[in-house]
Amino acid sequence: MTLVTRLGDLERAAMQDVWEHGPATARQVAERLGDRGLAYTTWLTVLGRLERKGLLARAKVGRSFTYTPVASREDHIAVLMQQALGQADDREAALQHFARSVTPAEAQALRRALEGLEG
User: Fold this and answer.
1) With 47 labelled, which of 6, 81, 110, 117 sits at a CA distance of 20 to 30 A?
2) pTM score above 0.90
3) Are 1 and 82 in contact (CB under 8 A)?
């Protein structure tokens, strides 16, 4: 399992942007998230941190770098859920509490996922 570190607000915003729009340069991220009033160089720093954390891959395209998610948003969330579950002394109790907190539609999705593992 890949270790996923907790993301700060700017890191989370940048990841959401790249997951939603696909591979992007720091300038594209800065333009899309411009309502925050942050400089392009700030976003360049944020994307660099995400690359060092293993969440983004960087490739040189022309004179700039393009950042691409290493995993999907869903994969990232699944790792976070596994890490949270790993903190429990009693994993079964934690799973039971979680199961009681989900909506009926989410419970059905969990059932389908588990049935897929068994089949």
Assistant:
1) 81
2) no
3) yes
Best CA proximity match to 25, nearest among 73, 50, 61, 52: 61
Same domain, 40 and 86: no
Whether 118 and 110 have beta carbons less than 8 Å apart is answered as no
Tens of pLDDT, residues 42-96: 999 999 999 999 999 999 999 999 999 999 999 999 988 998 999 999 999 999 9
Adjacent-strand bridge partners of 84 = none
Distances (CA, A) of 62 to 4, 23, 59: 30, 14, 10
Residue 54, domain extent: 9-69
35 in a structural domain: yes
